[in-house]
Amino acid sequence: MHAKRVLQIFSLIAAVMLVTFVYGITIPREPLDSPRAGGFEETIIDLRSSPRSANPQYGRSSIDEQPAPQQSIRTILFPGSLGSNSNYSRVMVIPRMQEDDISWIAKELPGLDLSVYVADDPGASVHPPRNKGHEVMIYLSYLIDNYEQLPDIVLFMHPHRWTHHNNNFLGFDASQMIRALSDAHVMRQGYVNLRCHWSPGCPQWLRPTNAQETLSRQEETVLERCWRELFPFDPLPSFLAQPCCAQFALSRDRIISIPRSRYAFYRDWILRTPLSDYVSGRIWEYSWQYLFTKDTAHCPPEHACYCDGFGLCFGGETPYQQYVELLGKKMKLATELATDSRLHHANEVSPAVAGNGSVQLPFLDDTDDRARLEAQVAALEAELDVRKKEAQRRGSNPRLRAEECGRSWKEGDGL
What we know:
Number of strands: 7
Strand order of the largest sheet: 2-1-3-5-4
Low-confidence stretches: 16-73, 349-362
Distance between the termini: 71 Å
Radius of gyration: 27 Å
């Protein structure tokens, strides 16, 4: 009886091995452009040691040559690998229209490698397959085209130098942001939203269960359907949130933690969706953080974002908020002065006439009041300047920078 039992177990093991062998040689891999291979399964993939081209030709694509990625249970999103020095390679990806002026980049950021996609010029040397989906089409096209020849860090930014998309305390100036951005921070995090201020976008922004369309969130009513198309095996989140406005940095290791075919799947979704460019672009504006961090809400504290990301360390949440309040007071007074000047000008060139003659618009009573406001604005500007310079000094100290952001640090560590 015992020998018979052993024989049965041995036969069962042999059968399992045979089935496994036959399955392995008869079940074909998914083709690269298959939706299943690109978008549906979660994957474990570590290509951190894969070779990198020394002279990348940005914009070229060889997607059809790539094998399908190994499919498995879940995605592991690797950050970057901190090297022994801070000499990380960078490329800035810029989506632009033909009329956009990007001459500021060469002037303000000489030597920065660029990959510029001209969205509305199919004759351009680098262009997307279609002008659709706003910056989403460009960003995904770059990831597909350059998957095997990536730099250490990729910056995805809009073509405008000064815009509300950029950080207030860096003058809303893209060139200041790029110069100040810490490569080491990007390598540690893997994904960094380049906008620190929460409004708009945090702490909770898009809700897939909201059936009432609003002017500022037109995409909310179709979010549930889009989510199930883009991430069909992931649970529907109660909300999505991150600071606007689709400008971020990625480490190479974070990019290749996701198979290239998945980026092709997402771009195919943009190409095929009947949604407007505005709505599909907005869906992705608040989905990038999920793709690259698996967090439905990605809202780092503003003071930590400025400190570890850009070297402006105010000393913690409280002194940061004090700076914000001082700036708010200064802006309010400056607005009063500017409004007063416009009213003076309006009265001089076009006085209103009623019944008994000219009706003067209200403005500051006398020059003393105006001088007082100007002095207050000047005092606040001086105080803000002192605090900002102190924040820059503190941010240049690696130990203080790490302490403010709550991360470990030892002697010899860089920023």
